[in-house]
Amino acid sequence: MAFFSITIPKYRLKWVDAIVLIFVFAILYSVLNLGASMNVPFSLEEQSRIELDPLMLPYYAGRSLLRMFIAFGASLIFTLFYGYIAAKSQTAETLLIPLLDMLQSIPVLGFLSATIVAFIALFPGSLLGIELASIFAIFTGQAWNMTFSFYNSLKMIPKDLQEASNVLRMNWWQRFLKLELPFSMISLVWNSMMSFGGGWFFLAASEAISVLGQDIRLPGVGSYLATAIEAGEMQAIAYSIVTMILMIVLVDQLFWRPLVVWSQKFKMELTESVDVPTSFVHNILYRSALISMLMRVLVTPLCNVIDRLLDRMALVTEKAARDFQRVSTSLYITKLIKVFLAVIILWFMYEPVYEAFMLVSTMDNSNLAEITRLGLYTLGRVMIAVLLGALWTVPVGVWIGLNPRLAKVLQPIIQIAASFPANMMFPFITILFLKYHVNFEWGSIFLMMLGTQWYILFNVIAGTMSIPNDLHEAGAIFKLQGWQKWKTLILPSIFPYLITGIITASGGAWNASIVSEIVNWHDEQLVATGIGSFISHVTDQGDWGGIIWGITVMCVFVVLINRFLWRRLYKMAETKYHLE
Amino acid sequence: MNTLIKVKDIDVSFGSKGHENTTVLEDINLEIKTGEFLAILGPSGSGKSTLLRIIAGLIPASKGKVTYLGKDIQGVNPGVAMVFQSFALFPWLTVLENVLVGLEFKKLSKAEKNEKALKVIDIVGLDGFENAYPKELSGGMRQRVGIGRALVSDPDVLLMDEPFSALDVLTAENLRRDLLELWLDKKISTKSIILVTHGIEEAVYMADRAVILSSGPAKVVEDIAIDIPRWRDKKDADFTALVDKIYSLMTKKEIKRSEDTVYQPKPITILPRVSAGALTGFLELLEDQNERTDLYKLADRLVMDIEDFFPIIELASLLDFAKVVEGDIELTPEGIEFATATVLERKELFKKQLLKNVSFMTQMINVLQSKSNKHMNIEFFEALIARTHGDALAKTQIQLLVSWGRYSELFGYDEAKKLVYLESEE
Fold first, then answer.
1. Do A161 and B90 touch (CB under 8 A)?
2. ipTM score here?
3. Which of chain A's residues have a Cβ under 8 Å away from the Cβ of B135?
């Protein structure tokens, strides 16, 4: 299993991509517009000040955790609905999957400011809007990957099981409960865990942000850190980092590990595997009399009620669908509904698209060229960050991967390192940069790497461990050594994994550029020339034209690189270096 | 005896966009009556499993209809249950839960369902395993769960799709006997069984009637009643005679198909998927026999399934290395020459026979020669085949042609560029 991987759908560029692209930008433009039209300064008097008292940290940690779990819950619900619809309806599939792919590659942090403003507009004068915006940011960091995994699972359900559930006359609810959900469970849990790990970064980045000249702080660990940085309090920074690590480890041990162990019962293989994950928490829960009583008295009856309710609903809807098919010349009517829906969507899209085009025409050409130039700078940084990351992680990852015992010990540690929001480490690096007068144009590359190299490392380890033993033995017999061994055995074997890691890392680096090209310490600021710092800057100033253009150019860059570089490499990796 | 299921004028063709349809089943008529154990026999790819799925209502027919108790079926056939080759159990459910799934659509109380399920589990011989998960069971026991799940809903007709072919020989034999016992002693309420299989012996051992399909597009070649008294002895003369007869029926059809393509070169022949290596091995063996050999005995001696055996025979006769007469096979002069030749001579012979007998190969070479750079994109040829046979088949056929072309050094192939090219002739 590849770790920390993104899903790369296999389809060719089609006309539908263009529509999706326009659609995405129309929505984004509408959101931005919604925010821009509200030029009242925020009146957030009730906004609580963040206290640097370490005794407040448990409370802040709780608030942060709550945010994470609400976002995760939302992602899960979104995943189940979106994935299910995309997998079941062919018409929906042709639109939803390219849309999802687009959303997945767009750097979410760039939109943070825009969404915050939009949410504030929805809940004027209350912190709820900002709270939701932060949750939304975490959601956007998690949902796409989970949805892809669920959709792929649904598509991969073996044909014989599908036929069996047909012959057994299951309705859609029974099928979902007995076949589709169980079949997807392992990959859903795994991807949820990974996405949740990625969510910490967005949490830390979204709790404290400046929009339109206003510093917005939500009570939480991320804003505690931001306040500590502002005050230049080393000790408080250390506290917040320790709290963060504790949170990550605890959630991993108390929530994810037991879930992963539980999900093993949904393995498709009909053989018992030797290497099963374990969790002491799972064992405790499993053996606890209290828990089993709770299950018996509360959970099971509740589930039964829900089950019966949905079962009845499924019966009714399926009957209705059958009747509908019988009475209507169904093809005609469904076609009509589709056309109707298409017209509505087009009608809603028309205005924002028109306005966006108007904006394009009024935009100063030299300005646009300047933004594109900034985009190129950041592109260069992303590439260097990824390459440097690959440069050290390949030898180290192979070394770890070739020592299974070492890998077993290190993997959970690396996993936590990858989950840890790199932006929380930035202040320390900033101090060093300031002290040794490091050129921040180059220094920001290091900040980018901080969060993204782990993805490559993880995948390289997984790739190395997947080399079959007989290839190792063949290598030994033919006395492959040194560079020869790397060239003929190791590099080709890990190549697909390496590419997956690099693609994930590059996506992370684009996101990181928003926060890593501009950093603060006390009252000093380091800025690197690039589109990330540009977006941060215009967000702070409330320059809407700048925000729209910055984000648009960045998205175009990311999507183009994805299509024309990464996807090609991935395809090559899949066809040429695929180990069966 | 009243008719349970009637299959009327069924045609099935699968079409892909922009291509002509590939017909899988043609003009199939069948009747299944109460008390009947019917076997559907056919070579691999003949569409026998497709036919079973049409009877089950899992896939729609392109033409014709299936009736159950005189009524046209819409969607899943209400009178059937099905047993799958791969068992198709839900790995996350216990034996009891898996069997209960078979009752999901019935309007019974929970207690009634439980009672019924436990009774069936007892009948199929899984007493004591109610709470085991499928992964804890052996293959034979898993299929017992599959059978139990199908029987629990008291279906009129039990459909079985090669239910024993994923099991080892002894387990399969044991399960066959047990099922037959349930059936013959009327321990189950099922009124009729349809068994799809490629095992001729299996069919003759179990069924009352065998329907034999030809391959691509499948038609009913023969409908044979099997009235050997129960329990049948596989060594019995009547038994072996009938097996032999069915064997020759099935091969005759096979061979005839490849012969009549010679007269009408228009449609592209579907080539049997056999590697040059496998063919060589087969011809060498045949040469060792030195005689006309009975096909049935030969397959038995080679311990080969007819799934693997028939395509080799088909290729051998297509390339005119061997010929089949009344269930016997014998080498042609070319075949003898090939079998005794050296490695390099064999390539030459294979090339010669290919060009003589496989018109599409000749076409490919002609196309390549007509080009000034002597190479051509493989997708061009693939598209040609796809036009009449669909994308999936075209892909495998092209793979086959490329492997033969490379072996006989007719052309070279560059996988990365997807190019077929003629080797320069210096």
1. yes
2. 0.74
3. 267, 269-272
